């Protein structure tokens, strides 16, 4: 099941720091335009090629989540790793891999004593996020504007939720945030489109890497072409943090804002 992403509002796009104009979505954001990890698939062994191609062509179907829960976490993950800098056809689906993990009952092999099972974490997480949205803005999380959803998630990330006290008594807010971020990040950077974005050459077996000493790109990799951007208007990313430093001056792709 491939999620359908709506058209992106200008307020959700990263901006040019000089003109302040939105930077249009790209098929391949990042510093490595034109780089394509999959172009090297003929050099991979069959098992590696099959696994990597499966991630692109056949994201897992929904097995564990209800449709409502699937839709909810799709929106949450769109805020954890924004992909508005990507054209809709090149956005990396994050929830399918999470759903597959929970359906198979896979974990990292241990569980903190202040955390329930991962399946329960994602059930309670919906309740806690929705409760925070109701407390702050009088509506469910999915009914809020993008900026207000950012703000709801920000107070949870900063361990300052005001609602769902009973849930947070049974589940560490710190561990909760670490878990959902780890799931989002692991899935995103396991995908070859993310490898293209960061210039990672992908599997090098059985060919192997050859330039190991000076940090030079391999013959099949490319040199970076850097560009500047600043956060979208409808985002909390541009706010001054507690240290007093502003993150307004970024150097990267919009996918990491």
In round numbers, the mean pLDDT is 88
- The percent of residues in helical segments reads 25-40%
- Count of strand segments: 0
Estimate what percentage of residues fall within beta strands.
Answer: under 5%
Could you say how many structural domains there are in total?
Answer: 1
Number of helices: 8
Derived structural class: mainly alpha
Structural shape: globular
Largest sheet: none
User: Could you spell the SSE succession in H and E letters?
Assistant: HHHHHHHH
Spatial separation of the terminal alpha carbons: 26 Å
**C-alpha-based Rg, rounded:** 20 Å
Q: Spans with pLDDT under 50 lasting ≥5 residues?
A: 1-5, 240-257
Can you tag this structure with a few keywords?
0% strand, mainly alpha, 257 residues, disordered C terminus, disordered N terminus
Q: Explain this structure to me?
A:
The protein has 257 residues and is an all-alpha fold. The chain has one domain. It has eight helices and no strands. The longest helix has 20 residues, at 118-137. Mean pLDDT is 88; it is low at 1-5 and 240-257.
């Amino acid at each position: 099941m491939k999620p359908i992403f709506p058209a992106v509002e200008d307020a959700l796009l990263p901006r040019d720091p000089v003109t302040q104009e939105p930077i249009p979505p790209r098929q391949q954001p990042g510093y490595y335009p034109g780089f394509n990890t999959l172009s090297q698939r003929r050099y991979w062994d069959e098992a590696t090629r099959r696994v990597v191609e499966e991630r692109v062509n056949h994201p897992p179907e929904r097995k564990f989540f209800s449709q409502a829960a699937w839709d909810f976490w799709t929106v949450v993950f769109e805020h954890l790793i924004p992909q508005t800098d990507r054209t809709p056809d090149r956005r990396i689906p994050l929830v399918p891999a999470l759903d597959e993990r929970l359906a198979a009952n896979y974990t990292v092999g241990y569980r903190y004593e202040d955390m329930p099972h991962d399946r329960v974490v994602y059930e309670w997480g919906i309740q806690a996020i929705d409760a925070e949205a109701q407390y702050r803005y009088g509506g469910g999380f999915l009914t809020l504007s993008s900026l207000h959803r950012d703000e709801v998630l920000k107070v949870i990330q900063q361990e300052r939720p005001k609602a769902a006290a009973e849930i947070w008594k049974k589940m560490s807010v710190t561990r909760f945030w670490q878990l959902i971020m780890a799931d989002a990040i692991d899935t995103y950077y396991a995908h070859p489109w993310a490898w293209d974005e960061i210039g990672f050459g992908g599997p090098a077996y059985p060919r192997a890497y050859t330039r190991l000493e000076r940090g030079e790109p391999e013959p099949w990799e490319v040199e970076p072409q850097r560009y500047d951007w600043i956060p979208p208007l409808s985002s909390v990313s541009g706010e001054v943090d507690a240290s007093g430093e502003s993150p307004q001056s970024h150097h990267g792709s919009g996918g990491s804002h």
